[in-house]
Amino acid sequence: xxxxxxxxxxxxxxxxxxxxxxxxxxxxxxxxxxxxxxxxxxxxxxxxxxxxxxxxxxxxxxxxxxxxxxxxxxxxxxxxxxxxxxxxxxxxxxxxxxxxxxxxxxxxxxxxxxxxxxxxxxxxxxxxxxxxxxxxxxxxxxxxxxxxxxxxxxxxxxxxxxxxxxxxxxxxxxxxxxxxxxxxxxxxxxxxxxxxxxxxxxxxxxxxxxxxxxxxxxxxxxxxxxxxxxxxxxxxxxxxxxxxxxxxxxxxxxxxxxxxxxxxxxxxxxxxxxxxxxxxxxxxxxxxxxxxxxxxxxxxxxxxxxxxxxxxxxxxxxxxxxxxxxxxxxxxxxxxxxxxxxxxxxxxxxxxxxxxxxxxxxxxxxxxxxxxxxxxxxxxxxxxxxxxxxxxxxxxxxxxxx
Length: 402
Hints:
Blueprint: E1 9-12, E2 15-18, H1 26-39, H2 45-55, H3 63-71, E3 74-76, H4 83-100, H5 106-117, H6 121-128, E4 138-140, H7 146-162, E5 165-172, H8 177-189, E6 194-195, E7 207-212, H9 221-235, E8 241-249, E9 252-259, H10 279-289, E10 293-297, E11 302-303, E12 309-310, E13 314-318, E14 323-329, H11 337-344, E15 352-357, H12 358-361, H13 364-372, H14 374-379, E16 380-383, H15 389-401
Parallel strand pairs: 2-9, 14-15, 15-16
Antiparallel strand pairs: 1-2, 3-4, 5-7, 5-8, 6-7, 8-9, 10-13, 11-12, 13-14
């Protein structure tokens, strides 16, 4: 993302207007192509800067920002293994010369060292420190078209602005179950503080949420701001969205407004929606033994307080209209199992069942909770790889008769 000194924007009547670049601009595309060639050469950062200066690239007003985008995609090459040995050899030879010979000036001393080691002074100076970052070659890890690099620049510009956010209001249009899960998974992964409105998140309607910004917190604002910025490209995977960020720039409050219509493009990979192989068999078996219940993938969503939310995997609907939701906890999201049971024990969410994977049910903290929770004994079960239809149907029938 772009640092504060590289951000290009204007503020008018307390509104922020980002300085987006035209991804089809011929002159900009030529600049990016030239920089791509330089970064692909495997030179050091200093050599790259010298070449860019010779070619006149560094005078372009966007050079520093685009350079930052390229640098973010570079790794440093390994230094030669004998650098430390070579360094001590140069130092020892120079030390012996200084002790044994009376020299009149630094220039004469450098000349004598160069003659002794049979290398120019400039080369000796570089060999002393060639294991430092500025002397190690840049290895470009990403290969994109010139327009892709410019799209990445526009995204990085917004990421840099969001570092200065107080609050972010995000509204997303109708989403599929997979898209919703991906968005919520990203919010969890980046540990963002989110406030959700009361009520169910319906698949056929827009949904709004409020995300706290780093300037709304009392501590760890830098890390949180980086997390918020890293989350933003995931928003760009949503087909329809609106974002309003309350920023503080130049010590003044201002508002940044963005929508999907501005054509911003994410550089993150879209994750495929995983469908377990056992799902079709589970659905078929369940319908055979429970004809009074219909099962399908759930699209409901339940905020459960303390910045947690329940995304059920299945919804079971009885012929009477009763709905029961089932959420499954696998090993990759075991951290919320105990808090989910505690939330359910409050009695505020009567229509939820929990399935806990056996691999995490063995963990001491979770095992203790499962054994002591009367709610789980009545509304939960432990499964191995995938829930058995007979276990779920038995639990539903037991609930239906209580």
